[in-house]
Each structure stands twice: as structure tokens, then as C-alpha cells.
Amino acid sequence: xxxxxxxxxxxxxxxxxxxxxxxxxxxxxxxxxxxxxxxxxxxxxxxxxxxxxxxxxxxxxxxxxxxxxxxxxxxxxxxxxxxxxxxxxxxxxxxxxxxxxxxxxxxxxxxxxxxxxxxxxxxxxxxxxxxxxxxxxxxxxxxxxxxxxxxxxxxxxxxxxxxxxxxxxxxxxxxxxxxxxxxxxxxxxxxxxxxxxxxxxxxx
Amino acid sequence: xxxxxxxxxxxxxxxxxxxxxxxxxxxxxxxxxxxxxxxxxxxxxxxxxxxxxxxxxxxxxxxxxxxxxxxxxxxxxxxxxxxxxxxxxxxxxxxxxxxxxxxxxxxxxxxxxxxxxxxxxxxxxxxxxxxxxxxxxxxxxxxxxxxxxxxxxxxxxxxxxxxxxxxxxxxxxxxxxxxxxxxxxxxxxxxxxxxxxxxxxxxx
DNA sequence: CGCATTTTTGCCGATCCGGCAGAATCTTCG
DNA sequence: CGAAGATTCTGCCGGATCGGCAAAAATGCG
Lengths: 204, 204
Known about the structure:
The structure is a homodimer. Chain A is built from 9 helices and no strands. The relative contact order of chain A is 0.11. By secondary structure, chain A is mainly α. In chain A, helix 1 packs across helix 4 and helix 2 crosses helix 3. Chain A binds a DNA duplex through helix 1 and helix 3.
């Protein structure tokens, strides 16, 4: 039972985050004040601060929400499925933007590009990655019967997956001509689960 | 030929960073103002800002310097050595604190603990990791004859190694009773280079 | 020593940041 | 429905951050 309150809160949060993304894409982070974002979202500056500590956090929030869904999706995969298979599917489902058939939301793509490009956003992005990794580690631990507190394994897997997604994203943004995201993700994860052997020859 | 100028500049930088670490360990990040750090290091607050954008950056700077050395060390490894062997040695050399024989610097350990513990430092730490990963990726690319711009491989490896070091560090800090860092690092990297297979049974 | 270059510093306005308390809004319960 | 209770929004405010600017100090060089 989600009351009106919860819903409005989430609405405000998303409105603020989207406003922050739009404005930062438009003017660059240096040209955006917290006040501007608050106004764009129709709340006071003080309210902005009730939701986010910094402008960068607001920008990164949409990315965080997406990232956290990987763990959700992993838990949703059938129990019998091998871990890396499940991880690949989970990541593909939640991050496989830019498929050949459906064009991704241009605002979102511009937003991601800004997040990767603007140095002022890197901190928040990395913090996002860390949070997502922790959540994913818990899901991996549950699936593999390990303990995040005692075993190195789940956090290692989570961090490695995060690294793979990050590397794939960066590569995807740079790609010219554009390539679909899905295959890049699959390639990165497959390499990971094969132990990252040195590429034998030119595999351009 | 490094002039007096260069040397003094580096000295000031390190003095500021160490001062920041000491004070943050002592009072927590919330209890430290930039002004305090500047005073402790014997320079003006404005000068602090010539070196670091934020207090957190100053704290993380020693860690950054260490992290960048992994790439140096990798380049120093013999060319014939397999990549993962070289990576393991490089990481072990630069990060293998807490060996059974020599106790690590307590101030440094407390500093690392603070960096991992204090949420206010996470952003700077992650930024550090990202910078180090980029540098390491370049070294990996050189060694494997790949191109960081075109190939996914070097960044993927660098990010994965960073993840392994991070997971090992976190685990090391939590370990009670304390365990030496070296073996943890080796374990993490070996698992990586074996494709992170699911742990078969209880391997407590 | 005297000049060129680089670094340090004080000054200052814009902005950030978060505690506080009252107003506004939603929720629960009689 | 209406009042009490809980939560959120907002204005106010002072301390701290942040970075541009130009004068002063330190360093390097001929």
C-alpha cells in the first residue's frame, strides 16, 4: 500500500533529477546552480537539498535507480541458471540500450554522455557504482550461498561486473559509428567470465 | 633535473595531504575545516585551494600516488612475463602492506580505514580509482598491443584489477583477527584471471 | 645583483550547505 | 467528516566552500 505521500516524494525526486540532467546537458555543470534546478522542478532550493546533497548527486540519481535494478533482475532469474548466465541476462535486460530495433531516449543518452564526460560528475557516478555494487554483491551472495561479510567472492564479482558495464558504456559512447549496447555488454561479461585472457591477435 | 621549485611544491602537496589525513583520522571529516589543514601544514587556506579542490581530495591524494605506481611497476616487469603474472607482481609490490614480517605504518592504516569508512571520502576515493584505472589501462594496452581507444580490453582489465584491489582492501580492513594483505590480493587476482567461477562448496 | 617566472597570499563576492521552526500537506483514527 | 499526528515543504540564517584577481614573496637565470 503506497500512499500519496510516497508517490509524491518519488515524483519530486525524479522531477528534480530529470531537471538536473536537462539543465546540465544544456549548459554544462558549471552553468547550473542548485537554485535553477529547484525552480525548473517547481520546488524551493531548500527542498532540493532535502533530496540531494549536491547537484551531481541529483544528476546521477536516475543512473543509480537503473543500476540498482540489475540486482533485482538477478534475483528474478531462475535459480538453476548458472551465475554468469544469469548476470549476463540481468545486465542485458536492464542496460541493453540502443538495440538495433529501438532507439534509446535521446535525453537519456545525452545525460549519460554528460555523466561520463563532465569531470564534475565523476565523483557522483563512482559513488553510484559503489552503491550498486554493494546491492549486487548481496544478490550474488544469496545466489551462491556466500556471505558478503566473510567471503571475498560476492563483492569481487559485483565490482567486476560494475567494471565491465562501465567499460562497455564508455566504449559505447565513444563508438563512431554508433554500435548497439547489448553486444558490448555481452562481450565484456564473457571476457570476464573467461578470466580476461590476453587477446591473442588482432581482434579488431 | 628537478629544481628546488618542483621539490618544494611536491613537499607542500604531501604535507597538506598528510595533515588532512591526520586531522580526519583524529576528528572525522566533519570536524575538519580546510582552514585547519592549511594551518597544520603551515600555509594559507588559499594555498590549500591551489593544490586541492576539496578536503576529500587532499585526504585521497596519498592513496592516488600509491595507486598510480601500480602502472609504473607493471611497465617495469619483464616483457616476456604473462600479463596476469605481471599484474599480480605489480600489485603485490605496491600494495602488499601488512606482510607478516613488517608492520605497516599505523597512521597510513588508520588513514586507509578512514577513507573506506567515511562516506564523505568515498567520492574522492572512487575518483582516485578511476584515475588509476585509466593509467593502468594505458600500461596494459602497451603491454598487450591493444588500443585503449578502440579496444574494450585494457580498460576492462584495469577496472577489474581495481575492483579486485578494492574488494581485497575492504576485506582486509574488516578482517578480525587481522590477516596480511598480500595473500588477499593474490587470491582476488587469481580468481579474476580464472573467470570468477562460482565457489563450489564451503571454502571458509 | 636585477629581471622573468612561478608560487603564495589576502581580499571578496557568489554559492553551497544544513539546522531550525513554522506553514502546508497527507494519514490515521475516532 | 473532522481533529490529532506525522511528514514534507519552505524561508531564514550563519558558517564554510570555492575560485577569480592582483599584489607580494620566492625561486631561477644570466
